[in-house]
Amino acid sequence: MSRKRATATSNAVKERHFSTTERRRLLLPHNNKPWLVKNLFYLFLLSLLTTVAVVKFFTFVQQPSYNTKAMSSSGSKILVYGGRGALGSAIIKHFKAKNYWVGSIDLANNEEADANILVAPESTWVEQEKAVLEDVAKVLDGQPLDAVVCVAGGWAGGNAAHADFVKNSELMWKQSVWSSVLASAIAAKHLKEGGLLTLTGAKPALEGTPGMIGYGMAKAAVHQLCKSLASEDGGLPKDSSVVTILPVTLDTPMNRKWMPKADHSTWTPLEYVSELMEKWANKEDRPASGSLVQLLTEAGITKLVLA
């Protein structure tokens, strides 16, 4: 009797063991599914982080001369040469607020711009031309510009007896003439018909500038460039316009820093120039092509006077 009970008990144990094994085998796929999904997620995350790290590494190594956000195939587009300076930054901010696509060309990036093309200052004029035109073509990808706004430049004083006369003259030529010519080359290739090219001259350069000969000479060259581009065979697209602004003093942070006691009511606000660029880009009160437009500010009011 005890032997039969023992056998029955043993069989029962075996049956219970068999049932437990069967249950584990049947439930195994269901119990493992969350584990598998969880690990797949971590594997995917690891793969994504690795990919990002590799892309950033090669981006750092290659150091491209331009960067860009996605460009819409529709809408108005402008390019600002000198987009990191005080006036260029104000213009980019203004046009971005009006929902324009805006590109910047300068020695450093403007974070508000949709695209940044960097110029290597140690390069020759021809080398800059090649690099800038290649990068502009890549960024635009066949889409035309409504306007090219060149506000690059700088200031340096000195007459012929100054120790840095030649050095300063070379610097002024690079900052004003090189940039204006390159902006003109961009406009010739990428400006739409009826588009706008604006350059930046200076009212004092309409006459002699003995205290800043290099500056006056470079700005006078920009004035002449404007007249040549506006001629019938100037090379710009059909029905497009080139206009040069001739400010006296712009109300910039640096000018206020170096001339704190000056009469600031005679300085032209950057916002005024930005609004003017927008109007001209939209063909509102746009002067005739080839115009040299003086910006004369008195008592905080700016008037436009043709030179």
Brief overview:
The protein has 307 residues and is α/β, with parallel strands linked by helices. The protein has helices spanning 2-62, 86-97, 125-140, 165-190, 213-230, 253-258, 270-281; strands at residues 66-68, 77-81, 101-106, 115-118, 145-150, 191-200, 241-247, 250-251, 268-269, 292-298, 301-306. The longest helix is centred in the first third of the chain and has 61 residues, at 2-62.
Overview of the molecule:
The chain is an alpha/beta fold and 307 residues long. The strands form 2 sheets. The chain has a 9-stranded mixed beta sheet, with helices on both faces. Helix 2 packs across helix 7 and helix 3 packs parallel to helix 4. It is globular, with a radius of gyration of 33 Å.
